[in-house]
Amino acid sequence: MNSSERAELLPAFLSEASTDLGTLRAGVANLPAAAAAGGDDQQLTTLSIVAHRMRGSAGLYGFPQLAKMAGLLERILEARPDLNGAQGDTYVTLVGTAVHMIGVGLDDITHGRRETDLGLRFSRAGGAAQLQAVLRAQPHAFVPRSTQHIPDDLDDAADLQPAAAGSLPDTLRAFVREQAEVWEYFAPEVREHLGHLSAQLDAPEPDLDVTFRAAHTIKGSSFMVGLEPLGEFAHRLEDVLGGVRDGLLRIDTPLRDELRRGTDLMTAMLRVAEGADEPVQEQLEIQAARLALVAQGESGVPAPASAAPPADLPVASPELATMRVPARHLEGLIDQMGALVTSRSRLGQSLGRLDELQRAMQDSQERFGRAVRDFEERYLNADMLRVAEGTRPERAGPALAEDFNELELDTYSDLNILARSITELSADFSEVRRRLEAAVSDLHAEHEDMGKLLRRLRVDVTQTARVPFSQVTARLRRWAREHRDRLEFVTRGDDLKVDSATLQRLGEPLLHLLTNALHHGLGTPEDRAAAGKAPRGRVELSATLVGSFLEITVRDDGRGLDFLAIRERALMRGLRSAQELNAMEDDEVARLILLPGLSTEQQVSTVAGRGVGMDVVATTTRQLGGELLIRSRAGEGTTFTMRLPTTRRIMDVLQVQVGTVPLAFAVASVRALRELREPELRIGEGGFEAPFEGRWIPVVDLRELWGTPATGETFSLVVLSTLAGEVAARVDTFGTIGESSVAPTGSLLGALDYLSGTALSATGEVLPLLEPQGLLRLARRPDLWLSHERTGEQATVQGRLLLVDDSLSVRRVVGRMLERAGFTVDTANDGQDAYERLQQGVPYDVVLSDLEMPRMNGFELLSALRGRPTTASLPVVIMTTRAGEKHQRLAFSLGATDYFTKPVNEALLLRRVGRLTGAVV
């Protein structure tokens, strides 16, 4: 919802919310009397429904704090603990406090004040203490989310810091001394992420995902190498940025200044570790306490006194203090090699043009020679010569040649002279062509020698830039030792040489994979014992070279992925509809864990629950031009395999043409080129399949993907190899194979998982470099990319929808959303109203209904529609805040077509409704 629509619809939301607030206040006032009469159960149910509706409306309109407060009230009311006497009074007071804070939040929104500190004000109003009292009285009534202690002042917040074994400067410097090799790559990585943080904080509109990921990466890397003070502080910073990303905090000027101070402090910690003398101990305690207060929503925290600038001390740079070649120099050499490869390709283009010129000159010479021969035959034979002499004009003076016959003296006409001149020119052409041919031959030889030299240089520099895989496994073993009571960590392929730039990028994703195995995969010792397994789990990390690819595998012997929990979380977050999730195979569901923000962990901690780790794994793999395969079997464990190219900047690519669009594939992934006729193929579940080595493989028609017209019956197929099997890509024409300089995809194209990068052709043209496994996923889900038939410039969306919801705000917002997409939308305020409309015979293509409504709820409406012959096949889509499996199972058993959770994802809803109506959205 944009700002103009929100402003237009806000009065309706406030009106409805005010009515609901009045209902809540009246219900709370009547609770003591209802409890005394023994009939408070119905009263609590009514209040729970009102709180549920308010939670959905507030979330839809973009008021997350109000939505969370209403959600808390809903959970309190649903728990209905059996309390008596003073404990019962505490419960009623808790409900009243929550209702009061909802009123405070609505008052802020009504008067245009920003929505902040609602949870903190609830705690200060006694809500947290009341909730704890209810929990102590009956802890199993409901399970609230984990709460953190809210410090009353800076001193209390400072107490949250763990006690240090020694002074912070000594700890930092000791780490550099003892872990000098680690510091060489760790410090530049942290500085890089701190630079990203600073740049985003200075930007007018900072990218919250970039800032959050930078803090998260610093935290993870610090804990992994054993620098806990930096990791703990980065975690504080991550909590604040997480609040900003979730809408709980506003990134205004004071908050930016607070975050900048935190970034500067981490930079100062790096300087102290390298020998500088700065008061970081005191700054860390103060700034950590301030960030703790900010993360809890505390506003108006006084700014600390400005610290004196540190004295300029000569600090040795790690890169100057070592005799090793800095990685950036090697990367610069490799980049220059990429430019040389491009230059050589252009030289090849020039040689090709010279070849064409040589052939053109030869053709011209041949035509010239033919003209000379024709001329001689026509004008220089005996008969033609006599005719020409008979017509020669009279010459003045004595005819001296008349004393000689033809055998004694040659005579020359103008034609003779012209013919001789042409013959001489033809001979000159032959000499020039011979010399040009020799020069082009020498250039070709030089070009081939240059290519051989470049290939040797590329191999040598690439080998120089490679380091043992053990450099990353050593860091991971340190982490594994801290968890040796839970797992046995085994590594294979430590001696394998890997590109240093690639290895530096692998540390964080591999740590996330190990953390995922520990917290999600292995299971608790009790669960493992019940399954007949050893209490300690086993995690194996292996690295191997397969052709031109590096394959890294992380395998655990745990319980496997919980596909049901993944489906529930994806539905709850609005990433997919229930129908789409039910139609997915397990391997497709497994890839949902790679989406940002999706986690099956119930509690958020410093290592799990934020839904960041697997997103980092997928993003890093894609940025390195690789692919990620997930295999999981219940009770046996999960295997993650990363397949990465051994060299990234320069590679051999196959150019192809799709319509007018040039594309490229990495030669290392190409198995074969085939040209088949349509009768040689067959139609499978996902479309065409082609025979290859005794089996059938799926075909992706790139012409459909790029929107070019499909013509001809010949299938020109590029057979590609992936971790999950082969896939054939249909193109129009095959091109040439050559070396190209390759660049990774940027943020704009990074979401296209079938694109691994861009290659620069010899002519300077940028070619999309396609990723085989992404194409294989497209082949398995053609409905995600096949274009619909369109008439005219833009297809017309048609369809009449009935939107059923008792919330006026939801009807207006969702109705406006659907109307913008071209649908005709009618609304009904509950199931009874909708049923009466449908009984009148009004034709609708789809019905979208809430579940909890007065008079007739969604389940009852669904059952009634399926019981009438005229509406038995009418698509009915459920939209509700209830994401539980019990609600879904009942809805689908009654005949629901699909199931969404609120707040609904606009793109997902439009896509699904468009398919149900046969429209193009």
Short key terms for the protein model shown above:
alpha/beta, five-stranded mixed sheet, 52% helix
Descriptive overview:
The chain is α/β, with parallel strands linked by helices and 921 residues long. The chain has a six-stranded mixed β-sheet with strand order 10-14-15-13-12-11. The protein starts with a helix and ends with a helix.
End-to-end separation in angstroms reads: 17 Å
Q: Helix count? A: 30
Q: What's the average pLDDT?
A: 75
Structural class: alpha/beta
**Low confidence ranges:** 143-165, 305-324, 785-796
Number of strands: 23
Largest sheet, in brief, is: 6 strands, mixed
Instruction: Please state the CA-atom Rg, rounded to the nearest Å.
Output: 38 Å
**Share of β-strand residues:** 15-25%
User: How much helicity do the residues have?
Assistant: 40-55%
Overall outline? globular
Biggest sheet strand order reads 10-14-15-13-12-11
Set out the fold topology:
Elements: H1 3-36, H2 40-60, H3 64-79, H4 85-110, H5 118-124, H6 127-137, H7 154-158, H8 168-178, H9 180-202, H10 208-225, H11 228-245, H12 253-273, H13 280-295, H14 327-379, H15 382-390, H16 414-464, E1 466-468, H17 470-482, E2 487-492, E3 497-499, H18 500-521, H19 525-530, E4 537-546, E5 549-556, H20 563-572, H21 578-583, H22 586-590, H23 613-623, E6 627-633, E7 637-645, E8 650-658, E9 661-666, E10 670-677, E11 682-684, E12 687-692, E13 695-701, H24 702-705, E14 714-722, E15 725-731, E16 733-743, E17 755-760, E18 766-770, H25 772-780, E19 800-804, H26 808-820, E20 824-828, H27 831-839, E21 846-849, H28 858-866, E22 876-880, H29 885-893, E23 898-901, H30 906-917
Helix pairs in contact: 1-2, 1-4, 1-26, 2-3, 3-4, 4-6, 8-12, 9-10, 9-12, 10-11, 10-18, 11-12, 11-13, 12-13, 14-16, 17-18, 18-23, 27-28
